[in-house]
Structure formats: C-alpha cells, structure tokens
C-alpha cells in the first residue's frame, strides 16, 4: 500500500473493517482515500492523530453535510439537508454548537438518565421474556434493536405505533450516505417530526421533546428547525449505535469464552467490560465529516484547505501505539481512553445513557441465560453496508 494518491476503498472496508483499518493505519495514519460511496476524504486511522483532529477547530463541522451532499450530487443539486437539518449538532461549530448543546444538555441530564433505569430494566425483561423457550433467537430483531429504540422513542415521546416507519427511515438515512434515497428518507423524517413538534406544542406530554419545546422560555427558546435537528440526532444517535454495542459485545464474548466466564463470575467487572466492548467492536467506523478551514499540517501530512476529513474511531481504538494487544478482548483493561464516543466538543451527548443501556442489556441477558451460543456461521456474519456504522446485520443465538 503506497501513501501517495487516494486509495479506493471497497466493500472490505466495511466487511473486514479491522484488518483494512489496521493496514491503513500501519501504512499512513492520515491519508487520502475514496470511500466505497465514491466520496474522496482524508481518512484518519491513528489514535493520536484522531484525537488531534477531533480537538482542532481548523477541522470544521459548519454546514458540512450540505457541502458533502453538494459535492456528491453535483453543485446544481439542491441539498436534501434543508434548514431543518442545518442545526444538527454534528453540522455546527461554536458558537451555535455551544448554545444548542447547552440547551439540550440542560434537559438531557445525568438525573434524566438515572430516572430511566427502572424502565430500561423493565423493557429488557419484557424482551427477554419473549425470547424464553425458543430454540434459536435472532438477537438484533429480538433484543439489540427494540431495547434502545423503545428507550429513546419513549424518552422523546414518539408514539409507539410509529416505531416501524420511523426505524426504516432512520436505517435508510444512516446506511444511504450521500444518496438520493437517503435524501428522500431525510425529508420524510423531517415532515414527520414537524407534525410531532406541532403536536407537542399543542398538547405537551411528559417527554423530552415536550420539555425541549418549552425549554428556554426565558428568551432562549429553540426554533422549530433547531428542535427537529436536535430530535434527529437524539433519536438516530440514540439507537443506531447502541444496537451495535449490544450485538458487537455479544459477538466478542461468544468468541472469548474465558472472558464471558470471568464476567459471569465477577459482575463488578460490567462497567469495564462495556468500555472494552466499545473499544473492541467500536459501533461507529467513521466519524461525522469535517472539513479544513485552511491548509493544515498534521502528523507531517499537509491537508489542503476545504478537504473533507473523517476519523475512523474503529481503527484508532485498535492502535497498538495506544492499546497493548489491541485485537484481544480484555474486560479487565484499564477503563478510559477509547474513542468510541468521539473526542472534543462533539463528544457523545448520550454516552451516559448508552453505558446504562449496555450494562442493563448485558446484565439481564447473563442473568437469564447460563449458556449463550452463536449459531450463525462465521462466513454468514455480515456487517451493515454502511461506512458510518459497524454493526452486524444479524446474529442467531441459542440461549439456554
Ligand atoms: C455524538 C457514538 C449513543 C447522542 C457521538 C459521536 C460518537 C458517538 C462517536 C461523535 C461523532 C463525531 O464527533 O463525529 C455513540 C455510541 C453510542 C452512542 C458508540 C452507543 C453505544 C448515543 C445515544 C444518544 C447519542 C444513546 C442520545 C440519546 C449523540 C449526540 C451527539 C453524539 C446528540 C452529537 C454531539 C455533538 O455534536 O455535540 N456519538 N453514541 N448517542 N451522540 Fe452518540
């Protein structure tokens, strides 16, 4: 692999993410590539380089989705990222980012998350009840998806009957990248959320969206576009990644029976185990995009002004310069340091909720089943066709 000229990445970037990530990182921790979607970006795969980029304001998020879509669809095409999505936190720089993030953080507090614990446990138990006594279970459909979807939609106040439609749009948006199909799903989601916000204004409920509608009545009120943008990142961020934590963690444990036995024997290891699942099968391959506001030299590489830059959290989390024996699952590894929740001003706002959901999901699963066996053949394991997400499409288990 040479370091000059963009390297065109194929399907194996997604299907064989760890070995391709390692090859890229070992050859050049920052280099130009063409993503499988055809998008040229500067890809960052080294740990220190990833942190440096995520913390450097010369890598901007301002209106980056618009820019990327314009580039992907041609300059004349109108971007599907209308005003409604312009205020997405991952599309903003300070000071707008700071103001909006503060408003959301005020509602989405540690206390809010803690107050959800009994409900998350109840949802996990209901899902596990339905899995009892079956010969085989497809984990994503039965547990890994419905758990975080129910948590985040209940929290925000999305009616239960809309879950299926809502989930389908979300998948198309996340997996579709900069395609017209993804644009259409984005518009539908925006239309849906407009009606939902209007309904919450009219008739507020006991949910986060209703609180956000009325948040900052003292003059700092969120506009409709801001509300919609915030709802989208919370809703999509809220389950598309957590599902991968659950399925990726179960896969890692099933491949490492010694670690599974250790976790069963000492449940106090659960919090460090969750951090290790996040590092070992990182739920996001790539960060959201950034672009350089000026020519930037970083780790000896010169990126011209206006270059799109993406960080591979997945590759950075297996950088041997930072983590000893990075491919090994070790649930006793000292906590901290992994980049699964990002780094810098866009650090995941939902990390406390994701961690709690993870602890409950794995805790309840181990309580219920003494024996967890993967029935899916290794060659049948497919990863979602997405450069954003590192998530299994399906995982069939026998649970006893
Ligand atoms: C941002 C990962 C769960 C809401 C991020 C980022 C990452 C991430 C890597 C930074 C992206 C970037 O800098 O480009 C994860 C993972 C999760 C998870 C791995 C689960 C295991 C959640 C949940 C929520 C959430 C449950 C909401 C309830 C957000 C929001 C942002 C974000 C709002 C944007 C923050 C900002 O731009 O200031 N997440 N996330 N995430 N996440 Fe999460």
Automatic annotation (TrEMBL):
Gene3D superfamilies: Cytochrome P450. Transmembrane segments: none annotated. Pathway: Antibiotic biosynthesis; vancomycin biosynthesis. InterPro entries: Cyt_P450, Cyt_P450_B, Cyt_P450_CS, Cyt_P450_sf. It comes from the Bacteria. It holds the Pfam family p450. It comes from Amycolatopsis orientalis. This is Cytochrome. Belongs to the cytochrome P450 family.
